[in-house]
Amino acid sequence: NAGIPSGLSLGLVAAGTPSSTAYDTIVSTNASSYTLSLSQNNDLKSGANTIPAISSTIAAPAAWTGGTIGLGFSVTSSTATPIDGKWGGGANYAAFPGTSTSIYTRTNGPAPRDVITMNAKLAISSSQVAGDYSNTIAIIGATVP
Question: What pTM was estimated for this model as a whole?
Answer without folding.
Answer: 0.90
